[in-house]
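Reviewer 2 asked us to include a model.

Predict the structure of this chain.
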Amino acid sequence: MSLKITVGDSAEAPYEQVRVQIADQARSGALPVGYKLPTVRGLADELGLAANTVAKAYRALESDGVIETRGRNGTFVAAAGEAADREAAAAAAAYAQRAHRLGLDRATARAAVEDALRAAYGSS
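Predicted model (structure tokens):
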């Protein structure tokens, strides 16, 4: 198992291409929990990108709970399911509170969520 990333000519920004590929590999198990990722500079050199580009992808992945940085020890694939579940629950609670403050009934609040999910995931 190893990290496999390609950055090409795409409408997506290079940092987003890196972020998506690492996230997909972590979620699929191709990169198992605890897998040590290359340093920002090492991956940037390997891909021919600026270090800031890779750093931006790593920050987004860490924010999403996909990876975790352990100081000088490096950056590792995190137990993403647990972090994602916690973050989703927090986002749902914040949305529910906001919808309630706006005076939305449950059906309207649910419909807004369904619309957002359709937009994010497609109509399937």
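Strands lie at 36-37, 67-69, 75-77. The chain has a mean pLDDT of 90. We have added this to the supplementary material.
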